[in-house]
Amino acid sequence: MVRTLKRSTAVSQIFAPVAGPGPVPVTLRVNGQVHRLGLEPRRSLLDALRLGLGLTGAKRVCNLGECGACTVLIDDEPIYSCLTLALECQGRAVTTIEGLAADGTLDPVQDAFVRCDAVQCGFCTPGQVLAAKALLDDHPNPTDEQIRRGMAGNLCRCGTYTHIVEAIRSLGDGRSGGRVGEAESGQGDQADAGPAARSLRRSCAREAADRRSPGPDLPPLTPASHLGGRR
Ligand code: FES
Ligand code: FES
Q1: How many Å lie between the centroid of ligand 1 and the Cα of residue 58?
Q2: Model confidence pLDDT, tens digit, residues 197-209
Q3: Are 71 and 127 in contact (CB under 8 A)?
């Protein structure tokens, strides 16, 4: 299941100096590389990745925490990068789909998606793969129920759910049981997603409502180069 970053309520942070509103230096570690950017504090991690670093694997679809196309890993936990401020990710390890294959060899999860034909248009696939990777880290031999719950935050408009479940199950040891057809219909069924997933939805919906507040489209990002660029 895709999560949002936990926010600290430490008093020292509540009264910390306000950053911005103009660009401030932000250092991100993405796929093992350190990048220095100049970002307005309101920038999402998704904007920083796509517009600041040119890493376009994470997709901006709903931008509201509802589809999972923007999923990346923060310290190996899946999060919606559209709902996460880039500033919050300093000092953490960010993994995007671009960081998964090593030396031209696909990650086993990517390989399973190809092998099981779990891709149609491919737009949701980067988020699906990263969510599946986190799920398999937690549950090396997931049941269909665990797959359903773990992937509940990632929607696929092409309806490849059956094959996605097959791909994830193929990476376990086959002991999980359950029928693919059950998992297929459960992907978008929040009533079946369990309290944790429903609570996540509510939390995301609240943040999404905040982000719907009126405002002009964001201007282009400040080029990274003036603060040192990539390293
Ligand atoms: S783009 Fe982030 S959840 Fe849809
Ligand atoms: S493969 Fe097209 S949206 Fe999932």
Answers
A1: 9
A2: 333 433 444 444 4
A3: yes
| Pick from 198, 191, 169: nearest CA to 181 | 169
Convert the pLDDT of each residue in 11-40 to its tens digit.
556 666 777 788 999 999 999 999 999 999
Residue nearest to atom 4 of ligand 2 (CA): 156
| Position 194 pLDDT exceeds 50 | no
Indicate the domain borders of the chain: 21-213
Q: Which fold has domain 21-213?
A: Ubiquitin-like (UB roll) (3.10.20)
CB 41 within 8 A of CB 19: yes
Tell me which residues have their CB closer than 6 angstroms to ligand 2. 119-125, 156-158, 160
The pTM score is 0.74
For Cα atoms 66, 106, 117, give the angle at the middle one, nearest 5 degrees. 60
